[in-house]
Amino acid sequence: MEIQMTEEKNLLLLATAADEHDEVDFESTAFEDSEKSDFEDQFREIALQDVMAQNGY
Fold first, then answer.
1. What is the reported pTM?
2. CA atoms within 13 A on the CB side of 57
3. SS3 assignment, position 55
């Protein structure tokens, strides 16, 4: 099962459950920058506008 969290308190609740119950464990964790995709989209849009302006569109 994959679970995505945006707040540390939710991760702490899950960690507590894993500590208290043998049937709950962590297989792996991965951290992502939640704003990275938005930043990349903004960067691409600005780059596209710049190219279009340079080409007279």
1. 0.45
2. 6
3. coil
